[in-house]
Specification:
Elements: H1 6-18, H2 22-34, H3 36-67, H4 72-92, H5 107-115, H6 118-132, H7 139-152, H8 154-174, H9 176-196
Length: about 200
């Protein structure tokens, strides 16, 4: 990945990770319903699930990239278009999301949430096809970025939702439109940065 894209990559990861999704809302609900100690058990499953999904998506993206090598730029544009679509939907949304109570709170619940989480599957595929694949033919390079996504992406945001609990939920819901607008603008900036490189 070119050095010029690193700020765009980090902003894309931060915004995508902190926005509500199944794992973030699951962490929030678990912390509110069962306390932090029990929610951390579930978070371990979320982390392992994220790692598994990230590695599997990296394999899929790399094989797809090798098979469609001359279309890599098209995949990059598709990634940028998806980021713009996310930005547009955030801009149109009135609320940042609602948490739901979990019936169970353990490692396997967290693992299942991540293995079935379409948000992170799309996030990893978009990040890898946009920021890694166009700049390297090496699976090792793609895997490094995938592991970085698993370490810096969602699991850290899940911890923020878990530890911030209801404070974060109240803040995001009371300022939902403004928060969505800022996140949408950041995502749009990432898409423009991708298109210009």
């Amino acid at each position: 990945m070119p050095t010029a894209l690193i700020p765009s990559f980090l902003l894309f990861c931060a915004v995508s990770a902190i926005t509500p999704g199944p794992a973030n809302l699951c962490s929030l609900a678990a912390a509110m319903a069962y306390g932090r100690r029990q929610a951390l058990k579930q978070w371990r499953g979320i982390f392992v699930g994220y790692l598994i999904v990230s590695v599997l998506v990296s394999l899929m993206v790399w094989y797809l990239g090798m098979a469609l090598k001359r279309y890599i730029r098209v995949l990059t544009w598709i990634g940028a278009a998806y980021i713009l679509w996310m930005s547009w939907n955030l801009l149109r949304s009135d609320s940042i999301g609602q948490a739901r109570r979990n019936e169970r709170c353990n490692f396997f619940t967290g693992l299942f949430v991540q293995l079935t989480n379409a948000k992170i599957i799309l996030f990893c595929a978009t990040a890898l096809t946009t920021y890694a694949l166009p700049y390297s033919d090496s699976y090792a390079d793609v895997l490094k970025i995938a592991l970085l996504l698993a370490l810096l992406g969602g699991p850290l945001a899940n911890l923020a939702w878990l530890f911030a609990g209801s404070s974060l939920q109240c803040f995001l819901q009371s300022r939902g439109k403004a928060v969505n607008m800022v996140m949408a603008l950041v995502l749009a900036g990432c898409a423009v940065s991708i298109a210009l490189n």
